[in-house]
Amino acid sequence: MKTYPKFKAAACHAAPVYFDTPATLEKACDMIIEAAGNGASLIAFPEAFLSCFPVWSGVWAPVDTHEFFFKMASSTVLIDGPEMARLRSLAKRLGVFISMGINEGTPNSFGCIWDTNVLIGDDGSILNRHRKLVPTHWEKLTWAPGDGSGLRVVDTRVGRIGALVCGENTNSLARYSLLAQGENVHISSFSPRWPTHPLGEAGYDLEASIRLRAGAHAFEGKLFNIVSSGFLPPEAIEMVCRDNPQVRRLLEESPKSVSMILGPDGTAISETLRDEEGIVYGDIDLARCVVPKQFQDVVGYYNRFDVFDVKVNRRALAPAQFFDSGDPYTSAGVPDLVEGETSRLAALTLTGSEA
Fold first, then answer.
1. Is-catalytic flag, 112?
2. Triad 80, 103, 216: Cα angle to 5°
């Protein structure tokens, strides 16, 4: 008889140290060590945890945000940089999986930033990098759109893991593309707050939307959903508001985000964190995903593949493609590239994007 993985998952409800990547990385490592010490095998962090969420774009006019954008761009993380190397080393040492939200930079441009989720394996490898397909509303002022190369589900010893970032969990086709790959553990990462309306007007209820979207995906897919959301501390509010009382009130009164873990019926199997930082835990038994598939299996018998035809473009995009007839530098007597440079160029050629 087939056996199904059982493990403990952890969702971190936490705030970064804004624009301070080294300090935020230290905080992340401390939380990973704490969660692993409490028996967690999969540890999830919020959207853009390394090292800030651009909440200022929701409360200031674009002409007033250049300072924030400069600091954010200057604190980005490279996928092959030292921050990721440290997280990979820690994951391998502790034997845990880490889902981390980063502001991903690129050597191609000082100002291009992606809202990226990275899944690190328990062997220290990068299992997947998913760049948010479409930044939501005012997030477009900061982040570049991603591509479909990260719409992947990774088969691991704890289950088949997929992830989407914040508003993507509203996109039914993005969610279905993961379900169609056999996803049974989903990671949803969210922002700390998301102001959308002036003071006094009914705005976007972030907590309600998270519960609705996360619960719907868990129920539709008959899977477990780990929700990790950011937290907006007083010092971040003080920094963003710039002594403007109206902006301060708007940030303080915007609905807070929540972190929790949901079961295959869409209900919470963990406590919920909202008003303080911390870690929530949930015991996951993938055997619970089997029986509910009898009722609706949207990637199995409960679908009409003759009626619906879904195609997903997972080709990685790059700024340009270069076709060289040879290496003019070698023929001119310039030494060959060193081993590291050769490997990087080979990786660029193979992937069509940064190594």
1. no
2. 115
- Does residue 342 carry a pLDDT above 80? no
- State the DSSP string of 316-349: PP-S-----SS-HHHHTTPPPPPHHHHHHHHHHH
Give the active site residue among 12, 166, 241, 289.
166
Give the residues across from 280 on adjacent strands. 11
* pTM score of the predicted model: 0.91
Task: Fill in the amino acid letter for 84.
Answer: M
How does pLDDT run across 213-230, given as a tens digit for each residue?
Answer: 999 999 999 999 999 999
Buried residues in 336-355 as b, exposed as e (16+ CB within 10 A): eeeeeeeebeeeeeeeebbe
User: Quick one: which H or E segment has residue 234?
Assistant: helix 234-241
Instruction: Enumerate the β-bridge partners of residue 188.
Output: 164, 227
- DSSP letter string, 46-92: -TTTBT---GGGGTS-GGG-HHHHHHHHTT-B-TTSHHHHHHHHHHH
Listed in sequence order, the residues at least 6 apart from 183 whose beta carbon sits closer than 8 Å to its beta carbon are 153, 160, 161, 162, 221, 223
Across 280-301, average pLDDT: 97
Known active-site residue 166: yes
Q: Is the dihedral of CA 293, 207, 209, 41 positive or negative?
A: negative
For residue range 92-149, list pLDDT tens digits in order.
Answer: 999 999 999 999 999 999 999 999 999 999 999 999 999 999 999 999 999 999 999 9
Q: Which of 27, 47, 183, 289 is catalytic?
A: 47
SS3 118: strand
Domains and CATH numbers, the chain: 6-294 (3.60.110.10), 325-355 (no CATH)
Tell me the C-alpha distance between 226 and 243, whole Å: 36
The 10s digit of each residue's pLDDT in 254-284 is 999 999 999 999 999 999 999 999 999 999 9
Among candidate residues 27, 132, 222, 256, the one labeled active-site is: 132
**234, 15 contact by CB (below 8 A):** no
CB atoms within 10 A of CB 316: 16
Mean pLDDT, the chain, integer: 92
- By percentage, how much of the chain surpasses pLDDT 90? 88
